[in-house]
């Protein structure tokens, strides 16, 4: 049945250097993004959203998306990158604005934006709060949903979204790994919830994902990160497994994946875990998730 399922990866960091064979500035193998994409399309992916985490990242994401009709992008500034706003906030926001305006066919969300209180060493809390709220206005301006990041910051995220509800045209909190209480607060705003391997790392996570209404659920990989690992409690439910080798031994045409580097093709593993722990028919769940994603991001595409 897998071949008949359709997937949309809402969070793929395809501009990351790992897909150019570079790991921590060291080249380990030849660029293989084309191979990764081919594996993805043949595994049932029909669209992918490339994450833009800064003005520079967003430009790269759009350039990549222009190469294939199935690729799209977000435009925004990640909470850990919000220091980039500080020198000249208006100029930076105008840069994001111009990028969206000139690529309306490819940009499907404002983001990745939000709050990350687990990595305040990259950007202090006050700056994150200020410039998350500052860029929200782009949602209404371009009638685009928000692609949201939230780490240990649900209360403040919800407060800001509530305060700016007239400027928020829907959205998804991606890579969600919060508590049931956090889930309920986010759902009360009408937001969707994006689930990946990082969302399924603990037994509590597996409990929480069973509480997400089917019509508010989306899946993603957040590749090259957030893979489902054998140490995760949900791994016992993974049916689809791909051979992998260490990056130093990887060759492009081997049919292997790179060990420890996630790919869009692995999105099926997230679906398999969700279907198992939620006790739902996997094909029905896949169809519902596909429809949710199409409704939020591709209603006019």
Automatic annotation (TrEMBL):
Deoxyribonuclease which catalyzes (in vitro) the decatenation of kinetoplast DNA, which are circular DNA catenated to each other, producing linear DNA molecules. Plays an important role in chromosomal segregation and cell cycle progression during eye development probably via its DNA decatenation activity. Keywords: Hydrolase, Metal-binding. Pfam families: TatD_DNase. GO terms for molecular function: 3'-5'-DNA exonuclease activity; metal ion binding. This is Deoxyribonuclease TATDN1. One of its GO terms (cellular component) is cytosol. Belongs to the metallo-dependent hydrolases superfamily. TatD-type hydrolase family.
């Amino acid at each position: 049945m897998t071949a008949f399922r359709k997937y949309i990866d809402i969070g793929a960091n395809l501009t990351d250097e790992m897909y150019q064979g570079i790991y921590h500035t060291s080249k380990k193998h030849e660029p293989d993004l084309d191979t990764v994409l081919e594996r993805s399309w043949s595994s049932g992916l029909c669209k992918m959203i490339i994450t833009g985490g800064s003005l520079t990242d967003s430009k790269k994401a759009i350039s990549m998306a222009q190469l294939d009709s199935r690729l799209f992008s977000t435009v925004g500034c990640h909470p850990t990158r919000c220091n980039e706003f500080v020198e000249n906030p208006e100029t930076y926001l105008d840069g994001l604005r111009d990028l969206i305006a000139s690529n309306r066919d490819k940009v499907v969300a404002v983001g990745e934006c939000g709050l990350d209180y687990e990595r305040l060493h990259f950007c202090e809390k006050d700056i994150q709060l200020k410039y998350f709220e500052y860029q929200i206005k782009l949602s209404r301006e371009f009638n685009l949903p928000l692609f949201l990041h939230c780490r240990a910051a649900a209360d403040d995220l919800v407060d800001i979204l509530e305060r700016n509800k007239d400027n928020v045209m829907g959205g998804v909190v991606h890579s969600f790994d919060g508590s049931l209480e956090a889930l309920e607060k986010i759902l009360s705003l009408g937001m969707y919830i994006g689930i990946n391997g990082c969302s399924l790392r603990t037994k509590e996570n597996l409990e929480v994902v069973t509480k997400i209404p089917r019509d508010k659920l989306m899946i993603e990989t957040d590749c090259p990160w957030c893979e489902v690992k054998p140490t995760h409690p949900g791994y016992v439910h993974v049916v689809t497994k791909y051979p992998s080798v260490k990056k130093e031994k990887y060759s492009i045409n081997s049919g292997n994946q790179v060990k420890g580097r996630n790919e869009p093709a692995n999105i099926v593993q997230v679906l398999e875990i969700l279907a198992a722990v939620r006790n739902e028919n996997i094909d029905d769940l896949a169809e519902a998730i596909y429809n949710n994603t199409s409704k939020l991001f591709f209603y006019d595409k």
